[in-house]
Design brief:
Blueprint lengths: L16 H9 L7 E4 L4 H11 L3 E5 L2 H11 L5 E5 L12 E7 L7 H11 E14 L6 H10 L4 E2 L3 H7 L2 E8 L3 H17 L4 H22 L7 E10 L3
Parallel strand pairs: 1-2, 1-4, 2-3, 4-5, 5-6
Antiparallel strand pairs: 5-8, 7-8
Helix pairs in contact: 5-8, 7-8
Length: about 240
């Protein structure tokens, strides 16, 4: 069942739209690419095919490492590595492109961005997809959900200033909040379909994922969460020649 997930990216906010926008906007040749975050296997495959490059996929948990390797199967040109996003073992100026979709919207963001700048080449690209808030003062059920999910959203009106202050030029931006409804609905359906077709080795992965998605989808779809948070992508360029 896990291998079937490689054909979609339904388990990530932004779904196919973030990667598709990047591919349309940026042309690269003979490039080095890093994808950050669990659940990004299909993205890694899409970028490998488009840019014909070796792809590194970084995940933070051993469980995610095992899951990614199961999903990717025989993908020889995608290397999955277990590491903290704040402190990687990559070289300075190693990558032409770093891609993160819903994987850095947390309290470690500042440290992660600093590390991304270190490993990006001068004038390298960073494609970031972030959960964003629409209000400075969130209701308690929203702030509790963010805390329980480890999310620390930037305000939608301030995210550009944030990345500019970190030394990035903003090349492209798009509000992908409209994808969240389908993201939650598709995720619930896929998880239910998968629940009866997984073995014991996959069950722990799904148990945690089902609980998280069910909770967040209920808040977004049933309790009006769409009024308080969304999703935005940016294509950024590191300052330098």
């Amino acid at each position: 069942m896990l291998n079937q997930m490689i054909d979609n990216i339904s388990f990530l906010p932004g779904m196919n739209q973030q990667a598709d926008c990047l591919i349309k906007a940026i042309t690269l040749k003979n490039c080095s690419i890093l994808v950050i975050g669990s659940g990004s296997e299909a993205i890694a495959v899409k970028l490998r095919k488009r840019y014909e490059s070796l792809i590194y996929l970084a995940v933070q948990e051993s469980e995610s490492l095992l899951t990614s390797r199961i999903i990717l199967g025989g993908e020889e040109n995608i290397i999955v590595k277990l590491m903290d996003f704040e402190v990687t073992d990559f070289k300075d100026s190693q990558f032409d492109l770093v891609y993160a979709q819903a994987s850095i919207s947390n309290n470690a963001r500042n440290k992660i961005i600093k590390e991304i700048k270190r490993i990006l080449k001068p004038a390298g690209y960073f494609c970031a997809g972030e959960i964003v808030s629409f209000s400075e003062n969130q209701p308690k059920f929203i702030s509790d959900m963010f805390e329980n999910s480890g999310i620390s959203p930037l305000h939608s009106a301030k995210i550009n200033d944030y990345y500019s202050s970190k030394g990035f030029q903003i090349l492209f931006e798009k509000d992908l909040s409209y994808t969240l409804k389908d993201f939650y609905m598709n995720s619930i359906r896929m998880l239910k379909d998968a629940e009866n077709n997984i073995d014991e080795g996959e069950r722990s992965f799904y148990k945690k994922l089902v609980k998280k998605i069910n909770h967040e989808s209920n808040i977004y779809l049933q309790l009006g969460g769409d009024k308080f948070y969304g999703f935005k992508m940016l294509i950024l360029k590191k300052e330098g020649k």
